[in-house]
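Annex B.
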Amino acid sequence: MVNGIHARLYHMINLSVVWGLIILFILQPSVAHAGAEAGAQLFIHALLPYLLPYIILTQWLLKMPNRTQKVPKWRRFLKAYVLGSFGGFPVGAVTVTEMMINGELSQKQSGLLLAACHAPGPMFIIGFVGTELFGNVSSGWKLLAAIHIANILFFLLAVAFLHRESEIETPLSQPQKKVKGVPLLDAIKESSTIIILVATTVIFFSSLGTVLSTVFTSAFTVEMGISKTIALAIFEMTSGVQSATDHFYGLPFFPFLIAAIISMNGLSIHMQVFVIAKTCKISMTPYVIGRIWSIIVVPVIFYLIY
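Sporulation integral membrane protein YlbJ: predicted structure tokens.
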């Protein structure tokens, strides 16, 4: 009976949130349109050129048949980290789930690697954040280093504190997935699905963040730049970074604000990872802990090496 009450309450809350957002979008059509348009432009100019080529190449490599019967654990971890962490969001989730389907990773390993193999692509951090936002390529490299140092430390600490070594030792005893058709064509097909997922979440959460920040600014005495940056940072990372640049560029804390927003990722990216990981029923607990770790540790490391 208690479970039934909780289920009904959860359903009512969901309905209330959805209808509340629908009403907000109806009452603020121009703001919603402007937010969606800004999200679409950011996706096309800041995400698509950096993300699409790497997703296709990563998928192509993963879909090639693995002829090695027994691969050492460290090589599987290194493969997942290199392919996943350097491809940008959500390539890490795609890589880990694909390797789990192929029988290269166990469920425990996949959960830990889902949290560790989660980083923005080098081209995005160095090309967009470093060059265009910071105006300094070396600052982009330092931020990228801070992100990867935090991820590797988290993974090493997580492995060290596991109670049972066997839980991360043996991958699932699944047969090697048979490759059907041409690997490149299959990679392009699956990459298009991922890109649509990324575009959908970026545009939706950019619009939502813009509408909520406008409403919040109208209801309370808060400067628009602050409320908009906070709202967009919570909902959509790229839009939050752009808003922070528009309103806080040149201030001493600006680089560290960007580092914090990128570490937070935003609900848009978390939703992408959740949808992808759900296909293999990978535990999201390490991922959640890893994101909290990143929000705290990345800005500190970036400050120390900046």
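DSSP finds 13 helices and no strands in the chain. The two ends are 56 Å apart (CA to CA). Further annotation is deferred to the next reporting cycle.
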